Structure formats: C-alpha cells, structure tokens
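Side project, low priority. Logging it here so it doesn't get lost.
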Amino acid sequence: MNFSQIARPLCLTGLLLASSAAFAGPSPQGEWRVADGTATIRIHRCGGVWCGKVVTTITPAGKDIHNPDPHKRSRTVLGLEVLYGLRATAANAWTGYSYNAQDGQTYTITVSLASESALRVQGCVPGGGACGGETWTRTH
C-alpha cells in the first residue's frame, strides 16, 4: 500500500469532518413557545435532520380539521409533527418545512436562533406565495 492509497481516504474523512464542523455550534433543539403563546413545540433530531412536534397547548388540543387529507382530519394536534426536514444551511440557520394545522398548509421555512432564548421562524407558501414570520421563546 502506498502513501496515496492511505492519504486519500484520510483526506476525504478530513473534508467531511470539516464541512460538518462548519455548521456545528448552537442548535434549535429544545422546547419553544409559539409567538401567540397557544402551543409549545419540541424540536428534536429525527435522523439526520431536525423535526418539531406539538407538546402542549393552552386550550384542549383540537383536531387537524383543515388537513387536505380527509383521513387525517380526526387526529389530534397534540403530538403532531409540525416541523420536519430542517437541515443546516448556515452556522445558525436551518431550512425545511412546517405544517400549519390552523389552515392545513405546508410552508417552506427558515429557522434561526436570534438568541439563546429566541428562535426566529420565517415561512412562505411553496411556489412564491405569501410569506411571514414570528419569534418563538424557549421555555427551558
């Protein structure tokens, strides 16, 4: 075995580690209260991406009545995965999707940490539709 046969795998491994380290640092993991205070979302790892599910609501949890799939309209929103596929796009930003049970729409979103206790969530209807955003507060 010559040096190039040894060095190439080591070099590739080094590049992979360096590229993943470029996005290392703060994460969106934790529990976040949405801007209007009506729900708390727990962001967690799910495979190689981040996801988020509804863990509390201030009123009894309703049903997913606006879901475009009629078979899903009777499920509760408590425990519903509302953020999914969040991938790091910068040192402090993740892009993915959000399902909004209040209108049955799925949005493309960007999530970024504004501070240790504030998460900025900005989203748009896919295909260039309406956009908006809000800041969530870490609960603990």
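Brief comment: The chain is about 15% helix and 45% strand.
Revisit when time allows.
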